[in-house]
Amino acid sequence: MAQLGLVVKSTGLWYEVETESNERYKCRIIGKFRLQGMKLTNPVTVGDKVDFEIEDVEEKTGIINKIHTRKNYIVRQSPRKKHFLHLLASNVDQAVLIVTITNPDLKQGFIDRFLLMTEPYNIPVIIVFNKVDLYGPDEMEIFNRLKNCYEKINYNCLLTSATDGMGIDELKELLTGKTSLISGQSGVGKSTLINAIDPGLILKTKELSGYSGKGQHTTTFAELYKLKEGGSIIDTPGIKGLSFNNLNVLDVAHNFREFFELSKNCRFSNCTHRNEPKCAVKKALEESEVSELRYMNYLQILDDIESQNHWDIHEM
Question: Does one domain contain both 129 and 210?
Fold first, then answer.
């Protein structure tokens, strides 16, 4: 008899599935599951609602045989198999991107690359600037500039510190009652921040590598945790970089939200906002109505996509 469950942990080979009665089963999949014909390293992901058959009652193992329709999902190019995609999570209410301006230094282009994963499904994003206790005047100036940039296009920005408690209550309130994907590059203090929000979780943390000054991965697999005050978070492994083998140039243009809004006034419907005449985005850029930083990141992403081998893209 089929059981209904929620995938709460993914290890790549096994999926931990929780039933409505809070029982957990270690499940595997048989056969192939595809996502709109795309190749996936993990066809099942945390946040999925699934049907599974119990294989061994005592060992609590099972076999997943159906994935329920997802309301949304967040997908990235696999860091290990360039022809494949990797699902980060599904059925989320919002995403929380944790960054820090120092220790390690912020790679600002990463923010726009992350937003390119959430924008296709209109998933709200909170950009959390963590470790504010380490910020001096220069870092605060950078924060204020970025805050103005992203709040202007309706992304929520928040300053936090697990060390002195700044922003913790506000972030906790934003998470309560929702399913939130938590993501960020290695070393930004993601696990420490989550522990400050809900000390009962006690996620593993590590210091920055003394040799490289970069973060070390502490989250090995994606996992869903229930929050004491309601709602849940999906913690994901630290991300080093983001590439896009599943997008073309116009996909990128359509998912930079302020560019898409302006594109209605471009001369050409397929305008890429680079060298085309009478481009509304270029005009807005000249008049400082759109962020030059966002535009430069946009051009870099287009270059990255176009530099990929043609056959690499179309083998998907």
Answer: yes
